[in-house]
Design brief:
The protein is of the alpha+beta class. The protein is built from 30 helices and 27 strands. Strands 10, 11, 12, 15, 16, 17, 18, 19, 20 and 21 form a 10-stranded mixed sheet that branches. Helix 5 packs parallel to helix 10, helix 16 runs parallel beside helix 23 and helix 28 packs across helix 29. The N terminus is likely disordered. Bound molecules: adenosine-5'-triphosphate.
Amino acid sequence: MRKVSLLDVAPIAPADARGGPGAGVGRDWHAVPTDHALLDLQSATTGLSEREAEARLGRYGPNRIPEPQGPGPLRRFLQQFQNVLIYVLLAAAAAAALMQHVKDALVILAVILVNAVAGFIQEGRAERALAGIRHMIDPHASVLRDGLRVTIPADQVVPGDIVVLEAGDRIPADLRLIRASNLCIEEAALTGEAVAVEKGVEPVSADAVLGDRTSMAFCGTLVATGSAQALVVATGASTELGRISGLVAQVKRLPTPLVRQMDHFARQLTLVVAALAAVTFVVAYWLRDYSAVDSFMIIVGLAVAMIPEGLPAVMTIALSIGVTRMAARKAVIRQMPAVETLGSVSVICSDKTGTLTRNEMTVTSIVLSTGVAKFDGGGYAPVGDVTIDGSEPAASARVMLARSAMAASLCNDARIELEGDRWIPHGDPMEAALIALAGKIGAQSLEPLPSASRLAEIPFDSRHRYMATLNDVEGEARTIFVKGAPERLLALCTRQLGSGMDEGPLDRGYWVKAVDDLAHGGHRVLALAAKAANVDTTALSLSDLEDGLVLLAVVGIIDPPREEARAAVLECRQAGIAVKMITGDHAATAVSIARQLGLGEDPKVVSGAELAKLSDVDLVRVAQETVVFARTSPSDKLRLVQALQSLGHVVAMTGDGVNDAPALKQADVGVAMGRKGTEAAKAAAQMVLVDDNFASIVAAVREGRTVYDNLKKVVAMVLPTNGGETGALLVALVFGFTLPITPIQVLWVNMVTGVALELTLAFERTEPGAMQRPPRPRTEPLLTGQIWWQVFYVSAIFVAGTTGVFFWALGQGGSLEHARTVVVNTLVVMQVFYLFSARYIHGASITWQGLLGTPAVLIGVAAVVLGQLALTYLPWFNSAFGTQPLTLGEGAVVVGVSAVSANETD
Ligand code: ATP
């Protein structure tokens, strides 16, 4: 039982609230008032100690919901036999055995077994790889430990922890709310109810049903708005989600559109095969006088020859390999169909901060009303010189700087920490840069910064673009500090801080110019403001900021573009993919960064406010032409995706906040940020970027194109193989000559080529020109006219080649077995040669690189050669498959004919 007991919460509860061992077990936490002795103690501000948390982790185990058991190895092995074709083969084996053809029956069974083992191994490998990838995006939780807010893996959360919640967070365990502001939680994961529920700290009745327990937050649900602190009361399997997890349907791997398309095709083909088999049986038995068994075996051979039974499996494997390779490039696929869609992406809409830029922020200057202070020192170190006009700031300027430093550090949730010899930011990098800035100013200021405690806050929200706090500052009146986008604060402020601590009317023109100058230089710009509050104010609302706000300064922050993003933008340009920057930042800043990234000399920019005025029709045109969308809000993103899609674009869109979820869902490929993204954004996205890096999106697109090419190659390889075999059998039947290849031999050829050749195409690397051609149209079918033509043409060559060598071998006076051995070898060697031309759709086929290229191909070919040598020269195989050893000369003919035909298929 992992329900927390009063005893477990002991370190944060007074002695009289502890009760005896086991007290509180199974308690209805939603009914417990928050002013209960247990909850209003220092725990709410300091949380557990690391030591205590560790001890509890040992006691209660990790906060993980046991995963439902997947099918065991035996079940998975048996699943390999669930296939219509296998049933046909099993029936054939049974029929052969009944009619005393025991050897044939055994051979059929052996082939079925080899296929099943190969499928089992490949599938197991793919499954393991996918399971490993899932852990790359394990959720995190923000908790108080030893008085500090730390981010820990969600499975380390223990009963008694104080969890800090913000919009977009996934609730890591079952929680009793202690503080809540504006909190709404979306509980669909638990109750199926999509509308977010308002939550608060008020206790509810002890017998309230799950959906009415508004003082609780449940594991697995998502914070839609607001912020809160809460006490963990149950973790892992003891949570409400843990209890029902057995009932929650296991997440299924969705079949992708292409796999579905091929499945459908395979099914149709099966019907054709059935019809053809019936006709063939009639022809073979009545017109050509084959025995019933032989006629039956012929239609088995035909079925094996015609049905591309391995195709859906090979395609799924190709997709899984794509997923694995994308994960290696830091792009985690959450939904399989995204692998395919990525290959046809024609527009990437990307956030700026952290994706196109490094999100390594440094404040370089502060504009005061009396001059501009410049700061030395990079990174997050709180040390560096401050100068105004090249010299040390005067005392009056220091006072102003100190006031800015106070606003910057108090209206702030981040911290910086010295680890080794490096200062590391914790929390929002921009806020951490402000802490470093305050450190630099503090080091220069004559007076140490007074200490202050926070009473209330308005958290930052990308919709209103500022953050405010209410602080009790030592030796001062209660003060409201605000930081945010300059135009927002300029609209709110009426006064400004003058020399020393004097206040004067706001010189709007001065500040607008200061902001423009900084933004044009590529700086991120932030304004700082303050206002005295009434002594009795304890809460903060938007209306408190409406009058009397004093502008303190404007801060210029640099966040350099990522080097690799520049290269990736160039790659997109060559690949015909448009890149659009969609940012909450200032237009001038965004344009400057866009220029540095190579998004154009004079990229067209539109602001969110301008977008809002456009009709949907006009928006379509603007969306197409514009490169930078500045000061956008999440709802603009949704409209933009829709506008671009209406032009036929396949859109990849990045996002991180809870409000980005609709746009991520709407996009063809929704991309969430792994580091700065909220859990809500990740849940809505199809792909998560582990490193938040734009270059990783482009790498994923490249892999997406590779996968699609490989699928095409697989189809182009598999279908002619089937076509050639079927053709050879049908030609013989129609023209009434002896079958050039027996059904058992057809089985052999299919097994060898399926396991060793076709599968290797799923592993092919990206072709050199993959990112130098325009994106494939969304509607392009896999089986294009060109592919059909190739299938037909290559099948015809296979038929001609095999029939030709058959008669040649017979003409040499050899036996039928001998001639058939030549045919089987020719068919397989032709396929080996064809493999090399199928490997390059867009480039020359047989080149050194092509020959040496992927190890998988070489291993496959080596396996085929060994298999053919065994088939031809080992007595056991000779008797099982009706083959005979060939001479060196015949071997040369086999290779020669195959090489000539390869030339034709190229
Ligand atoms: P992108 O959308 O490209 O990631 P962004 O990070 O600039 O860009 P937002 O996070 O929406 O977008 O920020 C928009 C603006 O809000 C910023 O330019 C800044 O002026 C202001 N801002 C950002 N973070 C904070 C914060 N923590 N406190 C106060 N203001 C902020």
